[in-house]
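Sequence of Putative PLAC8 motif-containing protein (Lupinus albus).
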Amino acid sequence: MVSVDNRIGNLEDEIEECNNGSKVNEFASVDISTSRKTFMSCENPERKFQGTSNSLPNRINLIKFDSPSANFMRIATEKDKISQSVPSRSPQPHCLKESFSGMFGEKLDWRTVKKMGMEWFRNPINIALFAWILCVAVSGAILFLVMTGMLNSVLPIKSVRNTWFEVNNQILNALFTLMCLYQHPKRFHHLVLLCRWRPSDISTLRKLYCKNGTYKPHEWTHMMVVVMLLHLNCFSQYALCGLNLGYKRSDRPAVGVGICISIAIAAPAVAGLYTILCPLGKDYDCEMDEEAQVQITAAQMQEPRQKPFKMKYSFASKDQRQVIENRPKWSGGILDIWEDISLAYLSLFCTFCVFGWNMERLGFGNMYVHIATFMLFCVAPFWIFVLAAVNIDDDDVRQPLVAVGILLCFFGLLYGGFWRILMRKRFNLPAYNFCFGKPSVSDCTLWLCCCWCSLAQEARTADHYDLVQQKLCSKDPDQPSIRPLAREHFVSTKSGTSSDRPLATLEEEHSQSGKDGIMNPPIPSLIQREAP
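Predicted 3D structure, token representation.
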């Protein structure tokens, strides 16, 4: 009987031979047991591992666990295989890039620059972004002048300079913290999509992170790096906000503030450069992507021919008698909030939840992202500016900061107005022109003056119609807004005689034919006996 020490020694010798590059043949299994009642098997030990050429590496894997980097590479390889099976959409040129190339190609056209600027300012998000940039620029400039001593002649007293420094420092801290809070729900959603990595998630993330929205080599790994850097930016800004709000200037740790500022600035900068320099920002002619598209095209060609027939005449079926509304209308007036009692109470007491739910079913994004973002727009400015005012000793500055926080919370309702504008434009809904004759300004005014009434109207409108392929369709099958012509209810046969059967019956008969075109006998329910 072989002792335990000898067996362990033999196993270590075999592992050393494998590491030295020598060829290791199949070896017998070694049963280690301290009991004398256990005997070695009488079978030929070579048969146990017959057909297993890499038995020693398998044993090593049992002894040693995979490192985190190896696990990450394995997951990245699996994700890349999934992404290769998702075809890319046809690349679309960037409109802004084309506009700049045409504008600066020969000479600077100021009319084109003015036109682009006016179009940019028509977007409410761009207006808010411009106001944020302007506030950051003014506060940053004042803070820089105070730090460098350029305002010593204007502010000769040191305590006054310290007050100006702290005020602008708290304003900048609040502005950058609010921007991170507003962006963080989307970044969390992108992280969830990366972890889930379904075909629809891949297409969504490609539009955001890949150049031209096409497949890139190892795109999951590169997207994960960018998303994690953006999360690092948010968390470092939150840490900096905690230091600024939790400590007075004299007690604030300078090392912690410097580290947080460095990470908060470097993380988004590195993420932007990485997106441009890594494969996400380059053009690739991927053969795998072309093969996937060819396979999908071939699969579509092999589908039964009755499917296009059904799609073409789907309005004739009994269950899908829906007609697209070219000019839909709002369901009720703006003040008809009590038209639906349950929806009215939900709009009053669950405003954020109803808004997110309504946006998701209309195809405007994820429900949870809308709920979190809308809540942050309406709540976060008050708390950020109130906490910032606590660290300021001047009462004349505290009250304006609190007032600014309340005002920003009120203007947070413009988030609902922005999505109302997109809803009206996408579905061609009637516009309100009571505010300076501008529909967009009127939509924002409705949300500022009566957000609950506007939300209830939008939810009632979504209930009144069905959403089919990003179009609103009437739910009433008996009174469609667009009726088919009389001749469209009947189809003439090849012999030239008219048939009195509707298209729905022909569709059912067509579905009875096989894939090879051979007609099958109709089922008894389709056989109609003619009257004598």
